[in-house]
Amino acid sequence: MTETQPGRVWLFGDDIDTDQLAPGRYMRGGIEQLAAHCLEAARPDFAAGVRPGDILVAGKNFGMGSSREQAAEALRHLGLAGVVARSFAGIFYRNAINLGLPVLTAPDLAGVADGDRATLAPETGMLRLTEKGIDIPTEPIPENLRGIIADGGLVPHLKKRFAAAP
Amino acid sequence: MTATLAQKIIARACGRESVTAGDVVTARVDLAMIHDSGGPRRVEPILKELGVGLFDPAKVVLISDHFVPGDTDEGARILDLTRAWAREKGVRFHDGVGICHVVLPESGALRPGMFVVGGDSHSPTGGAFGAYMFGIGATEMAGVLATGEIWVRVPGTILIEWQGRLGPGVMAKDMMLALCGRLGMDGGKYQAVEYTGEAVAALSMQERMTMANMAAELGGQTGMIAPDAETARFLRGTGADVTGWEQDWAWLRTDPGAELQEHHVFDAAALPPQVAAPHSPANAMPATEAGKTAVNVAYIGACTGAKYDDLAAAASILKGRTAAPGVEILVAPSSRRDQDRAADDGTLGVLEAAGAKLLPNACGICAGYGAHRLGAEVTCISSTARNFKGRMGDPESKVWLGSPLTVAASAVTGRITDPREVTE
Known about the structure:
- By secondary structure, chain A is α/β, with parallel strands linked by helices.
- Chain A has helices spanning 18-21, 31-36, 46-49, 70-77, 90-98, 143-150, 154-164; strands at residues 7-11, 55-58, 82-85, 103-105, 117-121, 126-129, 134-137.
- Chain A has a single domain (7-164), classed as Aconitase, domain 4 (Alpha-Beta Barrel).
- Chain A has 7 helices and 7 strands, in the order βαααβαβαββββαα.
- In chain A, strand 6 and strand 7 (134-137) form a beta hairpin.
- Chain A is globular, with a radius of gyration of 15 Å.
- Chain A starts with 6 loop residues before the first strand and ends with a helix.
- Chain B is of the alpha/beta class.
- Chain B has 2 domains: 5-267, Aconitase, domain 3, CATH 3.30.499; 274-423, Aconitase, domain 3.
- Chain B is 33% helix and 18% strand.
- Chain B is built from 17 helices and 18 strands.
- Chain B has a 7-stranded mixed β-sheet with strand order 13-12-18-17-14-15-16, sandwiched between helices. A 5-stranded parallel β-sheet of chain B has the order 4-3-2-5-6, sandwiched between helices. A 4-stranded parallel β-sheet of chain B has the order 10-9-8-11.
- In chain B, strand 2 (31-35), helix 2 and strand 3 form a beta-alpha-beta unit.
- The model of chain B has no long low-confidence stretch (mean pLDDT 96).
């Protein structure tokens, strides 16, 4: 995995829940429709404005609530380079890794503002604010999970594993 | 070297001498439980894509509970698919006999010390038996069914100690609502919650299951109780051979001096019956502070609140009493086995004489299914675990949570009532 091209930082607060990420009333539709409404309650401009390579930065307990995988799938579908948060809810963290969405924990997010340009390198765990010249270290994704993300998620990762098996 | 109960089970499952909180390890699962909603219909397409079968059909337990009784075209179709998959794969299958979290242990498949995953968020229920059991999403379950493995970040332990004994009219459900109120829905921090203390040791197995079950509402990865004589008694009742359990399970406890992430101490004797106001289990308060809110549905149901012990608790209040005018009592026993036992000893008769309507042994209203979903005008007092907006029906419906005793007492008076007011 190589360092991502600079993208825009979208800044959110604490306790962003899975109903905001994947609103229940759109769960019957496909991921396309669901992603179009991702986080609309908090930021109506998010889903339409986000571009591949952008980075979501949030406070504590990101992804709390339901175990629905579509919460992480919607963010991946929108092309985010990853999510950096002060902490993640457990099941969301697992689902994100399994669906190939980089999720990085950073206890200190001082200096990050909405609209900053930034890059995210999951291998080194570095969030780099390119215009401000600030490097924000995150807790790196553990080695044995990095392979899952590099392959694009658990299913492609397992495909590779079974294909390699004698 | 000292270790917690959770760490010992995970160390065994990943083949290490010991593990440290924060380590990410790959563990072998002893058992994988799936149900009709998140099971075959979701995992089979992924298994097909991978081109593999099950890692070990003998370690997979399938239980139909969400779309039972199959009273819609879609539900019936899903149940058909579920049954066909069970036949094709040769897994253990319990069809329409109750809710997975209750049926799994009563089938005898779940044993102390096991490392188990379940395709449902209330899977921590299994932790009541001193197993490490937690819920996962469907993609992850497909991966487990294909490989028999799963990664886990070794949790720290949040030890919750209940000193003293619960007073009359107070149940495990009250302890859990109080904990949700006190610690919040992220209080478990996705770590291992372990319950201990005199009040927990005094609880029946099914009451312990209620505590482990609601570790989900506390935000723990699992909720655990070290196995003891009561665990052995329950398992013996399922036909399991537990000879030598004292030696076999001796390792299944948190060592004195083991490093804990948090340690909370509560006084069980001081706990009054609790209720949680709409729309969060964290909105807990003593039942006497609920403002005598009028209710029109009293629901005894779900894995959390309709096991045999819950039915018996409700019957202890409803014996010789009837529902207040305008109050409908709905009872959906968690399993066929518990319902049969309640029928045999007269418990069910007491509930029916009080006016209770019996619903299928399934998730039913708690998962938002079935004809009895709550309407917009309904205020319900419920023995279930979650009262999120719209979960049990119309988004305008209001659900209060309470113990089966509190639900029964409220049914009798027609308003939210501390059960001690009815019995004293």
